[in-house]
Amino acid sequence: MKIVAMIPARKGSKRLKNKNLSLISGKPLIYYSIKTAKESKIFSEIYINSDDEIYKKIAERYKVNFYKRPLKLGGSKIKSDDVVLDFIKKIKSDILVWVNPIAPLQTSQEISKIVNYFKKNNLNSLITSRENQVHFSYKKKPVNFSLRGKFEQTQNLFPLEEMVYSIMMWSTDSFIKSMSLKGNAIMHGKFDSYNVSKLSSLIVKKIEDVWIIESILNQRKKIKNKIKYDNIISSNNRNLKIK
Fold first, then answer.
1. Pairing state between β 95-99 and 65-68
2. So where are the chain's domains?
3. In a structure prediction context, what are the per-residue pLDDT tens digits for the chain, which is 243 residues long?
4. How far is CA 226 from CA 119, 184, 198, 219, in A?
5. 3-129+163-206 in CATH: which number?
6. What is the CA radius of gyration of the chain?
7. Residues linked to residue 138 through DSSP beta bridges, in sequence order
8. 3-state secondary structure 4-28
């Protein structure tokens, strides 16, 4: 079975210009998705998919493949369905995995688990999500709580899922069929979502997100997976390892 990773890197970006090349801890943002895709050891091939030749240099630097999509598929209004279909038709695979470069804290272990989950459950399509158990409203109206009675504790609320797109995945044969029959395929056939960690759900869209990711990476190095507590707590319980 041929499983291919596709890392999309569109030239244009309205909210943060050239975000995939913005430096985080001295490395371009796109480096982290390349690194974790390689470390997952689950892909037959890894491609950067871009409408800009500059990413060919990035692909050469980090020793992955480069696919230049047609310029007509580089605009901000282009649908992901069309980008994926173009790639699938040119690069053969059984399963295509969209590894999002704007989720730099996603781990290689998590990528492997997601791909294996997809295969085990014979899915046609999958998107990662984050389960959130807080008070949600839509157009000022409560979704998972009531305005009547006392304020509901968050642990008693019905959790909702937020799509985070750190990974999207498809069976390529069924994707092509769905596009041919329905004109769309991102969520087609036997679809499921996969809840990822909080860190994996942190995605870069604005400059503030770059600062947040940079701070997390720097702080993680300093604390070495430990939380320190005030000395009012007994010395035996003062340092807690993060699992």
1. unpaired
2. 3-129+163-206
3. 999 999 999 876 655 678 899 899 899 999 999 999 999 999 999 999 999 999 999 999 999 999 999 878 877 778 999 999 999 999 999 999 999 999 999 999 999 999 999 999 999 999 999 988 888 898 988 888 888 888 888 888 888 888 899 999 999 999 999 999 999 999 999 999 999 988 888 888 888 888 988 888 887 766 666 677 777 776 655 555 555
4. 35, 46, 17, 11
5. 3.90.550.10
6. 20
7. 141
8. EEEEECCCCCCCCCCHHHCEECCEE
Q: What is the DSSP string of 107-118?
A: -HHHHHHHHHHH
Name residue 49's amino acid.
N
Structure tokens at 183: 């004109």
Burial code of 216-238, b = ≥16 C-beta within 10 A, e = fewer? beeeeeeeeeeeeeeeeeeeeee
Question: At residue 97, what is the residue type?
Answer: V
Classify burial at 153, counting beta carbons within 10 Å of its beta carbon; exposed 0-12, middle 13-18, buried 19 or more.
Answer: exposed
